[in-house]
Amino acid sequence: APGHSRVVKDRRFAELKDVDIAHFRQILGDKGVVVDSDELKVANTDWMNKYEGHSQLLLRPRTTQQVSEILQYCYAGRLAVVPQGGNTGLVGGSVPVFDEVILNLGAMNKILNFDEASGILVCEAGCILESLDNYVGSRGYVMPLDLGAKGSCQIGGNVSTNAGGLRLLRYGSLHGNVLGLEVVLADGTVLDLLGTLRKDNTGYDLKQLFIGGEGTLGVVTKVSIITPPKLASTNVAFLACEDYVSCQKTFAQAKLQLGEILSAFEFLDRYALDVVLKHLDGTRDPLPDSKQHFYLLVETTGSNQLHDKEKLDAFLESAIEQGLITDGAVAQDISQAASFWKVREGVAEAMGKGGAVYKYDLSIPLKDLYTLVEDMRSRLKDSATVVGYGHMGDGNLHLNIMAPKYDNELLAQIEPYVYEWTAAAKGSISAEHGLGFMKAKAIHYSKSTAAVQVMEGFKKLLDPRGILNPYKVLPSPSESHVIS
Ligand code: FAD
Ligand code: 2HG
Ligand code: ZN
Question: Per the database record, which ranges form the FAD-binding PCMH-type domain (predicted)?
Fold first, then answer.
């Protein structure tokens, strides 16, 4: 797979032996120890079919105690470990690079407590995001995050990647919504940070290190998270704009005119829309008569349908009057709203159907956000399809480049150009997907040497033997072995 030749195996790690497997059977029983080659193939391969490890062992613990015993053993014997949730990550972080033991949290999927007065949920890390949303949904709340992978991603994976997604504009990031965590450190120590308090300023806020830690600092086993109330009124509009400047102005107007009810502001370009309509069964063009270059999905969520509708109508009317949007459709019912959302949420999946896709998840100041897409398109000409979409309301561009197959010549046209461009624009080379394996070596484009050194210090403190998710996030200590 592409990229793998760039790093060589860290020789400090031990090879897996039969006695190790026997020991894990003692801890987990037969069911929790998977050596079946078909199951291993799935767990070794990432969602994009871009990264593939060759681990010989998949472990499925059911309790924190078991996670602790597994890590204690791995730490003592220097066996490297990849924590894995739903394996929907998009930066090669959730699969082994070589033969690391895969520690999948999926069997730890119990809801532990839900406080119906405060909306605070405490659950195990392996709970699927969509199941949690359904659970709190039937009790009058919603999860503060939502993403296209909700049917498979796990809350522990969401926390570990600090996933952003479709509701961040409204509810903010997991750094604010996660109230507590239980984490098992590399040596098996159980760190109980599972508070359920909105406010707690007693010393350093350690849980923040594991939010976005990508499994390199500890294994998240339990999560406490605040969920906002589910409000009565939701509206979804799908709008067409002639150019990117109009999208920006529409966003500024949406903030002004929709104010507190604005709950999502997403965008996709014509190329993205076309890929969705072509490759995803059951998707319909929300604006079949419009052939514009840019599309916006605007959602409002509030407590009063009349009030919200009035605001939305006024906003749309003025946007048309000012020439910011050329067309628009407001979903008339829940199923139409879902079909609009499917167009936006389906881009990632649709892009995967065309062969190979290079994904760049970037924060870029709003005014320059689309310039990169245009620059890349003229740079690559006919060799690839360049698509831009993303969480415009959060300044987050998803630049996807689709080609018939992974190709090193094409890659050399894209990288490091895309990282240099982003750094020059004072953006971030990872807005929400993390660094994983893909971008570990590119961290310097977004973080100073001093900042990376402090990160390395945390890594050494929490995992002195480096067994947790090696080769990910930080440039490997075996950097000198990089073959290029
Ligand atoms: P995995 O992919 O299994 O793991 C991701 C990383 O977290 C790995 O480094 C892994 O080692 C680590 N990890 C997993 N579980 C644990 C644990 N319990 N303890 C410690 N480390 C752990 N991301 C966004 O931010 N916003 C989006 O809108 C979004 N949309 C997506 C849409 C699609 C269709 C797909 C396929 C992905 C999308 N993603 C998005 C990326 C991905 O879904 C998220 O990053 C998600 O949070 C990963 O969760 P997971 O359970 O699949 O984790
Ligand atoms: C999205 O917002 C996801 O759709 C996936 O973050 C982005 O695949 C991508 O590049
Ligand atoms: Zn995204």
Answer: 51-230
163 lines ligand 1 (CB under 6 A): yes
60 lines ligand 2 (CB under 6 A): no
The closest residue, in CA terms, to atom 41 on ligand 1 is 89
CA 214 – CA 358 distance, rounded (Å): 20
Q: Tell me the ligand closest to 153's alpha carbon.
A: 1
Q: Given the DSSP bridges, would you call strands 101-104 and 233-241 parallel, antiparallel or unpaired?
A: unpaired
Query: Which CATH number, 3.50.50.60, 3.30.70.920, 3.30.465.10, 3.40.50.2300, labels domain 111-226?
Result: 3.30.465.10
Measured CA to CA in angstroms, residue 200 lies from 40, 197, 204, 287 at distances of 42, 6, 10, 48
- 156 Cβ closer than 6 Å to some ligand 1 atom: yes
Residue reference for tokens 């008339």: 332
Q: Structure tokens of 204?
A: 């350093």
Q: Is 352 in the pocket of ligand 1 (CB under 6 A)?
A: no
* pLDDT in 10s for each residue of the chain, 484 residues: 444 457 999 999 999 999 999 999 999 999 999 999 999 999 999 999 999 999 999 999 999 999 999 999 999 999 999 999 999 999 999 999 999 999 999 999 999 999 999 999 999 999 999 999 999 999 999 999 999 999 999 999 999 999 999 999 999 999 999 999 999 999 999 999 999 999 999 999 999 999 999 999 999 999 999 999 999 999 999 999 999 999 999 999 999 999 999 999 999 999 999 999 999 999 999 999 999 999 999 999 999 999 999 999 999 999 999 999 999 999 999 999 999 999 999 999 999 998 899 999 999 999 999 999 999 999 999 999 999 999 999 999 999 999 999 999 999 999 999 999 999 999 999 999 999 999 999 999 999 999 999 999 999 999 999 999 999 999 986 543 443 3
159 neighbors 213 (Cβ within 8 angstroms): no
Q: Is 359 near ligand 2, meaning CB less than 6 Å away?
A: yes
Residue to mutate, 128, 131, 147, ligand 1, most ligand atoms under 8 Å from C-beta: 147
